[in-house]
Design brief:
Blueprint lengths: L2 H4 L5 E3 L6 E3 L3 E2 L13 H13 L4 E3 L9 H10 L8 E6 L1 E3 L5 E3 L3 H15 L4 E6 L8 H13 L3 E7 L3 H10 L4 E5 L11 H8 L2 E5 L30 H20 L4 H10 L5 E3 L6 H8 L8 H10 L29
Parallel strand pairs: 3-4, 4-5, 5-8, 8-9, 9-10, 10-11, 11-12
Antiparallel strand pairs: 1-2, 6-7
Length: about 350
């Protein structure tokens, strides 16, 4: 792929119907601070962010829990010093807490919303956040209370658009009634498709865009644990789909996508991303990587064209009911939208 053409290969689309415009692919920054691999130095991380921007990808996603002591927001803030702020769509999140024992919790009180927003603005060294998500829903606090504080932050100009992540249908409706939700961030990939039946139709009805995190199955469809060994410090070594018998069962799905990708003259990761891109212009994948060559490979997915018949063939190659293992691990699992209303997991 010729670098001079890359800018033209990243079109821009509306995310939701509130006016936010983003690049067709976004970039998930969390991995730069050591979620799946060793964390990068700020110098190396900033270099990747700037090179990603130079290809035409302008939508960057982070969170206040990514990296040790909020490292990822600090890193992205440093990169933004050398980028035109008005051309970047900056998304960050609040609401997940982590104890010393790496036990996850959630917090959504109005006071905490404001505290987190003010802290993120300082770490990112910006005057406003384009898209501010509640990272996980705190069911002990009425969503209306959380949203009223977010609405106030919009009125003050500290955030421009509001997002939710891993919220169920009832929460989405109630939140949207207080202030329009611009985007819902959900895990969505070939092996995580449970939002298709209820959540995506609801978002389309309400004019809410979908931001797909882990669009390559946390790197599985790029070959993690199949053709590429996981680093010893990777969180994926604890993930249900990447361990033991589950991993052995799941490897066959990578092989099927690998076989199909040869028919389309692309890589498995390009095919998996292309499949997701073809689900609708309102769905924005945000793959992340610590290697620029992987990012350039991801950009190539924009050039893969698929027919309806080919899309069905790809879907059928990864029957979701046969995937071994839940889609997350540990205490975070109970804060996923499909588990949060299960009494035994509350």
């Amino acid at each position: 792929m010729e670098k001079k053409n890359e800018m033209e290969q990243v079109p821009r689309v509306k995310l939701g119907n509130q006016g936010l415009e983003v690049s067709r692919l976004g970039f998930g920054c969390g991995g730069l601070s050591g979620i799946y691999n060793a964390p990068l130095s700020h110098e190396d991380g900033c270099s990747i962010i700037k090179q990603v921007f130079n290809t035409g990808v302008t939508f960057f996603d982070t969170s206040d829990i990514y990296g040790h002591k909020h490292d990822n927001e600090f890193m992205l803030g440093k990169a933004l010093e050398e980028l035109p702020r008005e051309r970047v769509q900056l998304a960050t999140k609040f609401g997940v807490t982590i104890s010393d024992g790496m036990d996850f919790g959630v917090k959504g009180t109005p006071e905490y919303v404001r505290e987190c927003c003010e802290a993120s603005l300082k770490r990112l060294d910006v005057n406003y956040i384009d898209l501010y998500y509640q990272h996980r829903v705190d069911t002990s606090v009425p969503i209306e209370d959380t949203m009223k504080e977010l609405k106030q932050l919009v009125n003050e100009g500290k955030i421009r658009y509001i997002g939710l992540s891993e919220a169920n249908a009832d929460t989405i409706k109630r939140a949207h009634a207080v202030h329009p939700i611009t985007a819902l961030q959900m895990e969505y990939s070939l092996w995580s498709r449970d939002i298709e039946e209820e959540i995506i139709p609801l978002c389309r009805e309400l004019g809410i865009g979908i931001v797909a995190y882990s669009p390559l199955g946390r790197g599985f469809f790029a070959g993690k644990s199949v053709v590429e060994t996981l680093p010893s410090q990777s969180f994926l070594n604890m993930h249900p789909r990447f361990t033991g018998e589950n991993l052995e069962k799941n490897k066959s799905f990578y092989e099927r996508i690998n076989d199909l990708s040869s028919k389309h003259a692309c890589t498995p990761s390009q095919l998996a991303l292309a499949w997701l891109l073809h689900q609708g212009n309102d769905i924005i994948p945000i793959p992340g990587t610590t290697k620029l060559k992987n990012f350039e490979n991801n950009i190539g997915s924009l050039n893969v064209k698929l027919t309806e018949e080919q899309l069905r063939e790809i879907s059928d190659a990864v029957p979701v009911e046969e995937i071994a293992g839940k889609r997350d691990y540990g205490s975070l699992l109970k804060y996923m939208w499909e588990f949060s209303t299960t009494p035994l997991l509350k």
